[in-house]
Structure formats: structure tokens, C-alpha cells
Amino acid sequence: MDEKKYFTRMGDGSIVYMTETEIRADIEEGVADAVLRGKIDPITEEEKEHLYKIVTAPGSIVGVEPGKQVVLTNDSGAYKINVKSQIPIPKEMETLIYERCLGCDSVDVGNTDYNYKTAKGVAKREASALKQALNVTTMPLFYGAMTNLGFYTKPDGPVDNWAVLLPDGKIKEAMAAQEEAVEHAVRDVVFVAEQMYDVGADGFQLDTSGAAGDADFLAALRACEEITKKFPGMGVEIGMAGEFVLGMHGRLKYDGKRLAGLYPHDQVKLAEKAGASIFGAVVNTNCNKSFPWNIARVCTFIKACTNVAKIPVHANVGMGVCGVPMVEMMPSDMISRADKALVEIGKIDGF
């Protein structure tokens, strides 16, 4: 008799049917991969069994028990209706839709060109839009963007491009360019933060930190440190770009800790030292592996992070991260299962 097969998906969103044996094997392999890479403890046998039940639960959408829901923060929220859906409405109206129609707990008001180098040039205008949104909403509003060190490279920026220098063997020049870019980025982020603080922003978002490597993460940490000192009362969320900090520089440190190679459970400790209020943890989705493999790996990394964190951990469950398939139209069947697993096994505080 053939073994029963269960509906699930691959990391790219494609549908696949797997047997109990295959699902359990992938859960074991996903956990083992996280343990090996992160040098962390595995989830327990009871948690693996619970994860298997979440993966194979009947119904398209699953959820947590009443009373176990978590809060939501988000990045670049207040322009996605306008830009992504091409519905021409101003930001303050978008925030009302998020609050009163979609039931969001908070929203991030950001520029459509979502980086601080761009936001600096229009900071007063951005602050005006945020102020209007604050006047008509009740939920907390963040201002957010990406540090995005790549925007500081020539020909559009002031420093040499290390991605060009490194292949040419100009290692010292590439390292110096990244260090200079950090200084520019920190100044820009803090300048924008000041404008938003002046109009009453509830929080500040440093999104996709580390996207350009360890120098990018350093810029976010240093900016967070300055913001929390200069503008007390305005919380800062540091959201990561990936599970692993790329060593594009390789020698940069924060508080004596080398940044290159850090996984979420180490990243969160530095975010705490920098004064962050919320840490946005990321674990990458492998498109060539199944959802059971990916979510088992995610829960192992995230549980290690929440175990040591002293600030709230909000898992990033966007496209291609934390078990969510890498596909433009994200399937609710796998998103809801990823969410449930992150809450009940990963012990996260929010999304």
C-alpha cells in the first residue's frame, strides 16, 4: 500500500506532495543544517513532532490558539498600496487603510526610494507626510528605510565602489571605501531621524541591515546608538537583510565583536548593545529545498535567537525569508504554517 502524501511546497513556491517519511527526513536535515552552520542547539524531539503536525495540518490556512497572537511591525508599508497596487493615494490615506481596513498594529512610513541617502534630500517633505499621517491615525507609526551602503559608491555617491575594487585585488582600497561609506551613512540616518523625531515619530526603522555586508550592519548599529542617545523615547527597530553577515570588509567590529559571519543569535546581542528596541531576525529560504526543510531550519535559528534576546524579536516573514517561499504572490497556506511554527516553536514576539 502506498504511503499517504501531504500537500506542501518547495522553497520557490511550487507545489509538491510528500510522504510522512520524506517530511520527517527533511525536518531532521533542516535542523541539522542550522545546528552545523550556526553552532547552536537543535530544537527538541517534541518540537520536531509539533512541527510535523503543523506541516501536515489539514486545511489551507492554519493559526495559533486564541490568546497566542503576536503583534506586527512592517517595513515600507505606507507606500506599497500606492506603488505596488498603483492606486494613487497619499501616504496618510494609506496608513488609514492599514489601520482601519487591514487591522495592522503599526506601519512604516517611508520614501518609495527606500534608502536613507535618498531620504536625506527630501527629509523635510518626508517629515511633513509623516506628521499628517500621525494626525489621523492611532496606531504607532515608524519612519523607515535601508542603510544601503551601495548608494554611496561612485558614480552617484562619493566613495569608490568596493565591488569593483575587490576583483582588481585592491583590498586595502576596498576596505577604506567601505569605512568611508559607513561615516556618510551614519550621518544621513541620524539627520533623517532628527526630522522624524521632531514631528513625533513613534519609532524608527533601520531595514535590511547588512545588505551590503558587515560595513552595512556596522552603519546600522552605530546609527542606532546615536539615535537612541540623541532622541530618547523614539524606539529603533533593526531588521536584518539575511541570516548571515557577509564579510565584504572582514575586519570590522562593534563593541569588540567581529561582524562578519554572525548569525541571528549573535546579531541580536549587538542590536541590544546599540540600543535597539526590536530586532528583525531573518533566515533565508532555500528555493531548492522543501518547506518542511526550510521551516525546521528557520525554527532552529530563531529559537536560538529568542533564547538569548532581551529585546523583542520580530521574525521577518516576507518573500523568501523565514520559511516563506521565494515567490511574488506568496501562498497563504505556507505563510500561515510558517507563522504558527515561529510563534509556537521559535517563541517570537512579533512579525
Features of this protein?
351 residues; alpha/beta; TIM Barrel; 6-stranded parallel sheet; 12 helices; globular
Can you give me a brief rundown of this structure?
With 351 residues, the protein is an alpha/beta fold.
Describe the structure in your own words.
The protein has about 350 residues and is of the alpha/beta class. The chain has a single domain (about 70-290, about 300-330), classed as Alpha-Beta Barrel (TIM Barrel), CATH 3.20.20. It is about 45% helix and about 10% strand. The protein is built from 12 helices and 10 strands. The chain has helices spanning about 20-40, 45-55, 80-85, 90-100, 115-120, 125-135, 160-165, 170-200, 215-230, 265-275, 290-310, 330-345, and strands spanning about 5-10, 15-20, 105-110, 140-145, 205-210, 235-240, 255, 255-260, 280, 315. The strands form 3 sheets. It has a 6-stranded parallel sheet. β5 (about 205-210), α9 (about 215-230) and β6 (about 235-240) form a beta-alpha-beta unit. α4 (about 90-100) packs parallel to α6, α9 (about 215-230) packs parallel to α10 and α11 runs parallel beside α12 (about 330-345). The longest helix has 28 residues, at about 170-200. It is globular, with a radius of gyration of 21 Å. The N and C termini lie far apart (about 40 Å). The mean pLDDT is about 95.
